[in-house]
């Protein structure tokens, strides 16, 4: 099913749906985040049973989310998904709706390759340990230039940002690239970032799409997994997550690790922190699971667009807007 976005002026932002829309179009309220607020905008959806869904959007919707006419996957029945083809560069997609020059930002887990840089605007960095410890931990990691590791402003030690960021400091945006999949308790993590974001602030995520990574054989993460981790207040990857990560790690069509090694690492994770991809998503499941957490009032955001993964890449991009 497709939703085609076209630049047709309809209802002005914040107003009621237009009165003279064609009868076959259904108005769908869409909350679009900006730096200052979340604006109620409207999509008008033409329902053609069992064929396709055609959607026309206000210019304001296009202004926030679309550079060119494009298609997004979706369905009706109380919601319209905004899963779009990515037409922007990686950096442009991360910073869509973000003005680094006038905003204060935080990047989590930047290591030696930050996306947000001080030369472009005021930015802080957070990580699980200090810069000195990161350099020691990665001294033998060939893909990390230890001399380029950022100066970490806020050290969480695996705890909460709200415990180390001053109450007087709130961010206009937070960036996390290839972080969310490593977080043991995704619900608590998203709640915690909500504590340090201003209302209307943006959480900009880069997330690996399992269909394009070494996680391709793994089972999709489901709601029960998120709630189990949250109920347990999980602070490190569980033995199940670690086993699944190692057991089904694939390279060039073959499994990398033996069953015995996967069991060994899972046992080790009972007492030690063993890093793993705790969560596995496709574009559709990421959208659905995050939207479910929002609908249940478990995390304080509205979900903007999620991008499809372009050919030759492994990532999807998503933005959540703080309510």
From TrEMBL:
Keywords on record: Methyltransferase, Transferase
A Gene Ontology BP annotation from the UniProt entry: methylation
Pfam families: Methyltransf_23
Domain of life assignment: Bacteria
InterPro entries: SAM-dependent_MTases_sf
Single GO molecular function: methyltransferase activity
Name of the featured protein: SAM-dependent methyltransferase
Organism: Phyllobacterium ifriqiyense
């Amino acid at each position: 099913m497709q939703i085609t976005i076209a630049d047709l002026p309809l209802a002005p932002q914040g107003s009621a749906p237009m009165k003279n829309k064609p009868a076959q179009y259904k108005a769908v309220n869409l909350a679009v985040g900006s730096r200052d607020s979340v604006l109620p905008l409207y999509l008008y959806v033409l329902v053609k049973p069992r064929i396709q869904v055609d959607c026309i959007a206000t210019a304001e919707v296009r202004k926030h989310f679309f550079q060119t006419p494009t298609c997004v996957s979706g369905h009706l029945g109380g919601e319209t998904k905004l899963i779009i083809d990515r037409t922007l560069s990686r950096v442009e997609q991360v910073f869509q709706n973000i003005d680094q020059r006038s905003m204060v930002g935080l990047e989590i887990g930047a290591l030696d390759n930050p996306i947000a840089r001080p030369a472009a605007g005021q930015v802080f960095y957070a990580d699980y340990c200090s810069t000195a410890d990161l350099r020691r931990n990665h001294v033998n990691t060939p893909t990390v230039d230890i001399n380029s590791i950022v100066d970490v402003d806020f050290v969480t030690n695996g705890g909460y940002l709200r415990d180390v960021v001053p109450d007087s400091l709130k961010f206009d945006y937070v960036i996390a690239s290839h972080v969310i999949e490593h977080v043991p308790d995704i619900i608590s993590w998203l709640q915690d970032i909500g504590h340090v974001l201003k209302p209307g602030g943006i959480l900009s995520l880069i997330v690996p799409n399992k269909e394009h990574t070494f996680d391709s054989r793994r089972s999709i993460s489901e709601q029960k997994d998120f709630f189990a981790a949250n109920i347990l207040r999980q602070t490190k990857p569980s033995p199940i997550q670690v086993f699944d990560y190692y057991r089904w790690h694939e390279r060039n069509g073959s499994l990398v690790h033996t069953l015995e090694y996967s069991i060994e690492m899972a046992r080790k994770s009972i007492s030690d922190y063993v890093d793993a991809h705790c969560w596995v998503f496709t574009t559709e499941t990421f959208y659905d699971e995050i939207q479910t957490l929002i609908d249940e009032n478990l995390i304080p955001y509205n979900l903007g667009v999620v991008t499809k993964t372009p050919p030759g890449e492994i990532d999807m991009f998503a933005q959540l807007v703080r309510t």
